[in-house]
User: What shape does this take?
Amino acid sequence: MESFWSTLKIELVYRNSWRTRDEAENAIFTYIRLVQHPPHPERPRLAIPRRVRNRLAHPPSPTRRDSYRST
Assistant: This one.
């Protein structure tokens, strides 16, 4: 636990100065929140085959339900 407070002081407190106590508190709370819950990188989109994308973009009309049936 002591190493956490040391890291917080080195990375945040000693590098910044705030005008009010509220600004300092907000910065410290934000720092702690980001340490506990770091932002996740955006996941890559799945590669969807072209024919599946076309079917999703242009579903068959209600009268042609047999278009998905194999012959």
Remarks:
- The radius of gyration is 27 Å.
